[in-house]
Design a protein that fits this description.
Blueprint: H1 2-5, E1 10-12, E2 15-19, H2 20-30, E3 35-38, H3 45-53, E4 57-60, H4 64-78, E5 82-86, H5 90-105, E6 109-115, H6 118-122, H7 133-137, E7 143-146, H8 153-165, E8 171-177, H9 178-181, E9 184-186, H10 187-193, H11 208-219, E10 224-228, H12 230-234, H13 238-248, E11 252-254, H14 274-280, E12 283-287, E13 309-314, E14 328-331, H15 334-344, H16 353-370, H17 383-396, E15 401-405, H18 408-416, E16 425-426, H19 437-448, E17 452-457, H20 458-462, H21 468-473, E18 478-484, H22 513-518, E19 522-526, H23 529-542, E20 546-551
Parallel strand pairs: 3-4, 3-5, 5-6, 6-8, 7-8, 10-11, 10-12, 12-13, 13-14, 15-16, 15-17, 17-18, 18-20, 19-20
Antiparallel strand pairs: 1-2, 2-9
Length: 575
């Protein structure tokens, strides 16, 4: 079937024909969707082969969830939907976690899955991998569509693309039943049925009154703060954001994936004084950031006792007042809103100098306290000694993309490693999902061509570790560093009730580096910061797939990193 289907058209009684396979491929190409992340199998095996033959890059993963995470982060990096292609039922379900992750994080992504035939599914007759996938997907994504007829493939993809990137971006599900691919129609009619999506994410200008209100509130502040979220990073409005921040003189706090929009070493960056600025500020402007759990919902001890006024810049009106009153909502796309805010600053107002001085003093104090901890050469390593090395690597190689996940590995790296350019830090996002590492690293390398440094906790790596074979197969310039302390949080817990290991403990002395060697990549076992530094620099210089097993003291780490307070504690006394 594949050999005949790979032809752009067939001829029957003098009529030029096309089919569902070709129309799917042409719909994607027409709209610039030139990369597919997925896992082949029934009924989409031939679609992957044909897409590859037609010039679309098809990257085949070992698990659909990891392919989905790759598609999600591709959407974040490119502002066009990342495409994940899966088989039906179990493959679809594997991809669904990534689709929900993309929607929660506002990343544009399309999950395309083959499916069983409607007439069999609806009568529950027991088809191969029978499942009503559209019904299951709907609650977990921004939109979901099914295409039943070849002539509707163009419209189906157009609706999916527009839904994924317009307004607040998110995940979209596109259901393609197996029978669709083999449907044949007139080639000219097929070409005319395709749709090139025009301006799928149009600018949404803020109301002038809302801009004036926001500036009036900002100018009334004695201790103003700007918080930049990953929505600001996604917007690629880097110059406008810098212009507004510098023109206002307001200290800014970047959320983790917004780090690098302005360098973390910028004189207005308050990252190293996070606790102080959250507690002491009186007016807070949120730009593409949400007052969710990551910011303690805008309430409680984190925010201090002084009353605060919140300004919020977001494309989604329903986001306003989600946790606290927003006194100055500015609704529109980030680029248009920030440009309007910058234009409204006449130059006569700057953030108060005493506040700027106080933030700088606290930042400098905290940086000085941390510096000695980042310079140790302990063996086995602690987190700070290892992260001090990686901090220097990123400083010397600012184009390197940092992927980061774990508990302690994530929490500490977020604060220690400075970023210098936008969209160079990719991590677990709003849900704190473990397992995004290898998918995000692969997409980052594919979409940008830049070297990738993936810094992984040993537990987090376990969710996607088999994708090191994918990295080697495609010869991607990815260096994976696993902080190996023999367990989840730490490797010292003991099960006092039996012979089984404690639930948080892994095999002692595991050599993850040998996994990479098994597939032809470079594996290194690093036991000191000096060895880690040498190995990472060599990996990035060579561009070869590399995995470094960074041996961390098993006693290093804390329960659930910095969010251990989210773990419910038993109220019963232990006997």
């Amino acid at each position: 079937m594949a050999e005949t289907a790979t032809k752009a058209a067939a001829v029957d009684d003098g009529e030029e024909l096309t089919d569902g396979f070709n129309l799917v491929i042409e719909a994607m190409k027409l709209n610039g969707l030139d990369t597919i992340y997925g896992v082949p199998g029934i009924p989409i095996t031939d679609l992957g082969r044909m897409a590859q033959a037609a010039g679309i890059r098809v990257l085949s993963f070992r698990h659909e969830q990891n392919a989905g995470y790759a598609a999600a982060i591709a959407g974040f990096l490119t502002q066009k939907p990342g495409v994940c292609l899966t088989v039906s039922a179990p493959g679809f379900l594997n991809g669904l976690t990534a689709l929900a992750h993309a929607t929660t994080n506002c990343f544009p992504m399309i999950l395309v899955s083959g499916s069983s035939e409607r007439e069999i599914v609806d009568l529950q007759q027991g088809d191969y991998e029978e499942m009503d996938q559209l019904a299951i997907a709907k609650p977990l994504c921004k939109a979901a569509y099914r295409v039943l007829h070849a002539q509707d493939i163009g419209i189906g993809f157009a609706r999916a693309i527009r839904a994924a990137v317009s307004g607040r971006p998110g995940g979209v599900y596109l259901d393609l039943p197996a029978k669709l691919f083999g449907q044949v129609m007139n080639a000219e009619a097929g070409r005319k049925s395709l749709v090139k999506v025009i301006d799928p994410a149009p600018a949404q200008l803020p109301a002038p009154a809302s801009v004036k209100r926001a500036l009036d509130v900002l100018k009334s502040a004695k201790r103003p703060l700007v918080i930049l979220g990953k929505g600001a990073a996604y917007a690629q409005a880097d110059d406008a954001i810098r212009a507004f921040v510098e023109k206002s003189g307001v200290p800014f706090l970047p959320m983790s994936m917004a780090k690098g929009l302005l360098p973390d070493t910028h004189p207005q960056c308050a990252g190293a004084a996070r606790s102080t600025v959250l507690k002491d500020s009186d007016v807070v402007m949120l730009v593409g950031a949400r007052l969710n759990w990551l910011l303690s919902h805008g309430k409680g001890k984190t925010w201090g006792e002084a009353p605060k006024k919140f300004i919020q810049v977001d494309i989604e009106p329903k986001e306003m007042d989600s946790n606290v009153e927003i006194v100055a909502p500015v609704v529109g796309d980030i680029a248009s809103c920030v440009a309007a805010l910058a234009a409204g600053l006449d130059g006569s107002w700057k953030a108060p100098s005493d506040w700027i001085a106080a933030v700088k003093a606290k930042r400098d104090e905290n940086v000085a306290k941390m510096a000695p901890r980042l310079m140790n050469n302990n063996s086995p390593m602690d987190y700070h000694g290892a992260l001090g090395v990686l901090r220097t690597v990123i400083k010397e190689r600012p184009d390197t993309i940092l992927v980061n996940e774990g508990a302690n590995t994530l929490d500490l790296a977020r604060g220690v490693i400075d970023m210098y350019k936008p969209r160079k830090r990719l991590d677990v996002g709003t849900w704190g999902v473990m397992g995004i590492g290898m998918g995000s690293a692969i997409a980052a390398a594919v979409e940008t061509g830049h070297p990738v440094l993936a810094v992984e906790g040993d537990s987090a790596f376990g969710f996607s570790g088999m994708e090191v074979e994918t990295i080697c197969r495609y010869q991607l310039p990815i260096c994976v560093v696993i902080f190996n302390n023999d367990g989840i949080y730490r490797g010292t817990d003991v099960n006092k009730a039996g012979k089984d290991p404690a639930t948080t403990v892994f095999v002692k002395g595991s050599r993850y580096d040998r996994m990479m060697e098994a597939f032809g990549g470079v594996g290194v076992n690093a036991t000191s910061p000096d060895e880690l530094r040498q190995a990472v620099n060599a990996a990035i210089d060579s561009g070869k797939p590399t995995l470094i097993n960074a041996v961390i003291d098993p006693g290093a780490g804390s329960e659930s990193g910095r969010i251990g307070n989210l773990n419910p504690q038993s109220k019963l006394k232990k006997k």
